[in-house]
Write a structure and sequence with these properties.
With about 280 residues, the protein is α/β, with parallel strands linked by helices. It has helices spanning about 5-30, 45-60, 75-85, 105-110, 125-130, 140-150, 170-180, 195-200, 245, 260-280, and strands spanning about 1-5, 35-40, 60-70, 90-95, 160-165, 185, 205, 225, 230-235, 235-240, 250-255. Strands 1-11-8-7-5-6 form a six-stranded parallel sheet. A three-stranded parallel sheet has the order 3-2-4, sandwiched between helices. The chain folds into two domains: about 30-115, Leucine Dehydrogenase, chain A, domain 1 (Rossmann fold); about 140-260, Rossmann fold (3-Layer(aba) Sandwich), CATH 3.40.50.720. Helix 2 (about 45-60) links the parallel strand 2 (about 35-40) and strand 3. Bound molecules: nicotinamide-adenine-dinucleotide (NAD). The site of nicotinamide-adenine-dinucleotide (NAD) has 24 residues, from helix 10.
Length: about 280
């Protein structure tokens, strides 16, 4: 069984991106810029944003974090996004989620210029991805896709089962694998027989948020299994896949932690650089 090492894959991707930033700097005499808006003092959000800033600086992206208190008014945030949209030094804008209840998440997402939407959540990018056009792609599914391609470069005709239909993970994952000519089944909480669906799959991507949902007898012997889940349990952090059982039965599997997680931030950096490159044409 191949243990898919997301830490190593993310380090390789960051090294490639670092070289690309050097080349872009010598060609354009400027570097990509990422601005993150952080609202409130939720500890996980603060940690995510700190990691994003650190990783961006490591690859040579100019990063900035704009912090607001929980009580900030929606119009203040929207005004700031408008300013950033027209700031040429800013290639990518990310508003860290979740937002306080009084701020309309969709309004905020739609305020970001789609060409600077490094999370790929703007309806324009969602539509472009589903139409097969160039777009920013949400970072976690993009990371999953790159890990799958490392194991199996030719995905044409493979049967993929996506567990979970969130806008963040399941739906964009479906589009990415469809583009690779996979036959994709998207499953969710109302799916009648999830085990039977999974047993058909050459590729399983589990993004559910239920600890160890996918069991050892749900998988085919040569399947590639990607575990997006991050679930806090009494036994520590576990994924949506039962690692001990499934690892005995499949071709390749991502661990949790150390699988998909590290690729998510590396893909944010990739998206920032891609937004910069598109803005220079
Ligand atoms: P979500 O809650 O938005 O969506 C969960 C999906 O699972 C829904 O579509 C729901 O229909 C489906 N579902 C629920 N119960 C089910 C069942 N019994 N059978 C089949 N499907 C079922 O979740 P999300 O935001 O996509 O996150 C999923 C998991 O991924 C969470 O554990 C989250 O922490 C993790 N996550 C990890 C990363 C990362 O970087 N590794 C990033 C984002 C989210």
């Amino acid at each position: 069984m191949i243990l898919i090492d997301g830490k190593e894959a993310a380090a390789e991707l960051r090294a490639e991106l670092k070289e690309e930033v050097v080349e872009l700097k010598s060609k354009h005499n400027k570097v990509p810029g990422l601005t993150v808006i952080l609202i409130g003092d939720l500890t996980p959000s603060q940690i995510y944003v700190r990691n994003k800033e650190k990783s961006a600086n490591e690859v040579g992206i100019k990063s900035e974090v704009i912090k607001y208190p929980d009580s900030v008014e929606e119009k203040t945030v929207l005004k700031k996004i408008k300013e950033l949209n027209s700031d040429e030094t800013v290639s990518g804008i990310l508003v860290q989620l979740p937002l306080p209840k009084h701020i309309d998440k969709q309004k905020v997402i739609e305020a970001i210029d789609p060409s600077k939407d490094v999370d790929g959540f703007h309806p324009m990018n969602v539509g472009n991805l589903s139409s097969g056009y160039e777009s920013s792609i949400p970072c976690t599914p993009l990371g999953c896709y790159l890990l799958i391609k490392k194991i199996e470069p030719n995905l044409s005709g493979k049967k993929a089962v996506i567990v979970g239909r969130s806008n963040l993970n399941g739906k964009p994952m479906t589009q990415l694998l469809l583009k690779e000519n996979c036959t994709v089944t998207i499953t969710h909480s109302k799916t009648k027989d999830l085990k039977a669906e999974c047993l058909e799959a050459d590729i399983i991507v589990a993004a559910v948020g239920i600890p160890e949902l996918v069991r050892g007898d749900w998988v085919k012997k040569d399947a590639i299994v990607i575990d997006v889940g991050i679930n806090k349990t009494d036994n520590g952090i576990v994924g949506d896949v039962h690692f001990d059982e499934v690892s005995k039965n499949v071709r390749a599997l991502t661990p949790v932690p150390g699988g998909v997680g590290p690729m998510t931030i590396a893909c944010l950096l990739k998206n920032t650089i891609d937004c910069f490159k598109r803005s220079q044409i």
